[in-house]
Every structure is written in C-alpha cells, then in structure tokens.
C-alpha cells in the first residue's frame, strides 16, 4: 500500500505516465476504485467493470516515482501532489532547476539583502539573496553551480512575482 498511502493525504494530484501522458486525479475519483490486495505490492483493481492487475515494481516515495506493471505492461509514474503543483505554479520546477540560468522572484516582496555580486562563483543551494514577503524573510537559493552573470535588482527594491533578479552563466 505504499502508493496508496499518498492518496489519504492529498486532495488533487497529477500523474505523469512515461513522461508523455498526464492525468489529473483527485481523492474522490480514487475512492470509486474497487481495490483488493493480492499480496505484497500486488493489487487487483476494478474500475467501471474493467479489471486491472497491478504490481508495484519499484517505489521511490521521496521522489514520488513508481514503476508499475499494469496488465503485464510496465509504466513509469511520477506523481505531483498539491504542494508540487503549487510550487510549479509559482514558477519553480524540481525537474528543471538544474537548467535554470535566470532566477526570478517567486513572490512579490522587498529585497533586504544581496549575498552575491557579479562574477561570484556560486554552488547549488547557496543563499544568493533574501526576499522579505508578508513579514517573513525568504532565503532564495541558487538552483545550480555557476557564475553570477548579472544582477537585476538591488537592496531595498520592491519586486513583483516573476521579476528577473539574477542571471547565471
């Protein structure tokens, strides 16, 4: 029941199948399934009078990635829950962060500290600036190793969501 434990916590989620098909689901739709365990990580699912044999071949709960066998065909699933979808909507993506060369404001706020300058070498995860939003200080981290190409803001600037802050090489 590793896969199904996620369902009890999440209201809405997206399932990306083999990186080319996406399905939007919610907890209510999943409750309609007739699911019976046939042993460890094996299930029989009845949905709209159709029968499915499912086996979980590999599960990475932290990454929300699963490899399943469905009626003897293998599929790779990547599950995005409400939090993942909200982060994506804010302009961030766990899958694409290594390719980012530009850092944009994730929310409106005020730049209270710049921790880098043009030409600085930065490592993935380094704090590069502090953005104050709703009376909270948010440390904006570097998404990849690189060199600061240009800075498009300064300490004290009020920025809108999506404003280009820093470019990396």
Intertermini distance = 44 Å
Strand content: over 45%
Main pleated-sheet profile: 7 strands, antiparallel
Dominant shape: elongated
What spatial order of strands do you see in the largest sheet?
2-1-7-6-5-4-3
SSE string, helix = H, strand = E?
HEEHEEEEEHEEEEEEEE
Q: Which blocks of ≥5 consecutive residues have pLDDT under 50?
A: 1-8
Task: Count the DSSP helices.
Answer: 3
Describe the fold and architecture.
The chain is mainly β. It folds into 2 domains: 2-83, no CATH class; 94-168, OB fold (Dihydrolipoamide Acetyltransferase, E2P) (Beta Barrel), CATH 2.40.50. The protein has helices at 2-5, 27-31, 82-89; strands at residues 12-17, 21-26, 34-39, 42-47, 50-60, 65-70, 73-80, 102-104, 109-114, 121-122, 127-133, 136-141, 146-151, 158-159, 164-168. A 7-stranded antiparallel β-sheet has the order 2-1-7-6-5-4-3. A 4-stranded antiparallel β-sheet has the order 8-15-13-10, with no helix packed on it. The relative contact order is 0.14.
Summarize the structure.
This protein is mainly beta and 169 residues long. Helices cover 10% and strands 51% of the residues.
Give the helix/strand layout.
Layout: H1 2-5, E1 12-17, E2 21-26, H2 27-31, E3 34-39, E4 42-47, E5 50-60, E6 65-70, E7 73-80, H3 82-89, E8 102-104, E9 109-114, E10 121-122, E11 127-133, E12 136-141, E13 146-151, E14 158-159, E15 164-168
Antiparallel strand pairs: 1-2, 1-7, 3-4, 4-5, 5-6, 6-7, 8-15, 9-11, 9-14, 10-13, 11-12, 13-15
